[in-house]
Amino acid sequence: WYEGTNYANPEHQKNMLKSVIDTVNEFKDEPYVLFWLLGNENVYGVACNADKDPDSYFKFANEVAKAIKAVDKNHPVAICSGDTLFLDKFGKHCPDVDIFGTNAYRGEYGFGYLWQSVKNESGKPAFITEYGCPAHAESLSQAESESMQADYHKGCWLDIEANSAGHSGAGNSIGGVIFEWLDEW
User: What is the Cα–Cα distance from 154 to 160, expressed in whole angstroms?
Assistant: First the structure.
């Protein structure tokens, strides 16, 4: 753990792949599984080298996706990236990952060019794996803070909807998950 994960290290790859496949085998028949999600902002390089060697990271993620599909043909595989950092590497190295997921905190008006960027670089559906904002704002009253939070969430959701199939945007949005329900920070 101290040295962090090296995505080019065969031993690290073997251990991670075993852990993922064990998890998939254990839970693949549960009715609540929508898709398998790999990672969580790995591209930022916290406890790993994905920020320094994104090619190895995304190549390995693609190998994991293929291995998952070999044991579970009923669920798609997604990745959870950090915004659109190294999106070009994802597009190049992850043909077997079905969904580009990302944690994105861009503001109350949504996600901007994220949708079109994902479409251009990979042609994949996009899912916002985290978005939101805390309700606590030191300079505002509780009612004003909660109203600001509601506006932020609404703006993001409207952008997610506008970029889903059949709407005016990029057509590749498949949803999102609000992360900020509590003021944990």
Answer: 10
